[in-house]
Amino acid sequence: MTDLHLADPAATEAFGAALAAHVRPGDVVTLRGDLGAGKTSIARGLLAALGLAGEAPSPSFAIVQSYDPPEVRLPVLHVDLYRIDDPDELAELGLDEALSDTLLLVEWPERAPGYWPQALALTLSPAPDGGRILTADVPASWTPRWPI
What is the mean pLDDT of the chain? Predict the structure, then answer.
């Protein structure tokens, strides 16, 4: 595991933008942290760097927000599991079918424990200075692409 200090929301979005240079279809990136920790900021930075014009909405109510070329460089499903009460509900979302050719960005992955064991697991927690500490659990498939 590695830790990175993100001083402010702009640094959090910038990390997401830097991450965009390293993602590819079939990747899963999970984003953990309390409400307001910066999960959606990372996703927005990543999506903007992949070519999305305008600000990406939080998928809290839609649960899954999809982005496809030419809107972005590669297909992306931005998933927010905050409102998922039972991991069995995931089957209805069709995420397994998307894994071969789509990047999955998953907020609140703890709502589906063990569902994505090979994910790049990013956790955001408050830093004493008001920034964020990003902790990355880097799987073998990401080792050649890490650190960012």
Answer: 90
